[in-house]
Design brief:
alpha/beta
Length: 70
């Protein structure tokens, strides 16, 4: 089963995406905040990152740059 990481600060959209992906057989870990996402990305490996750009604290682009640098 593929594991997907989702960063989306809109709670309704986050819930909708998670529900859709889980209904289609994916394992999903989701967060609403860039700093929380940063912590969770170091806890596990993911097959796909879905990152919103405009989120509180650390935005999706900054997070992606940091992940690539690591």
């Amino acid at each position: 089963m593929a594991k997907i990481f989702l960063l989306e600060d809109d709670s309704n959209l986050n819930d909708t995406i998670v529900e859709y992906l889980e209904d289609n057989g994916y394992e999903v870990v989701s967060t609403y905040d860039g700093y929380e996402a940063q912590e969770k990305l170091y806890e596990s490996k993911y097959d796909l990152l879905l990152l919103d750009i405009n989120v509180p604290n650390l935005n999706g682009l900054e997070l992606l740059k940091e992940c690539r640098a690591e």
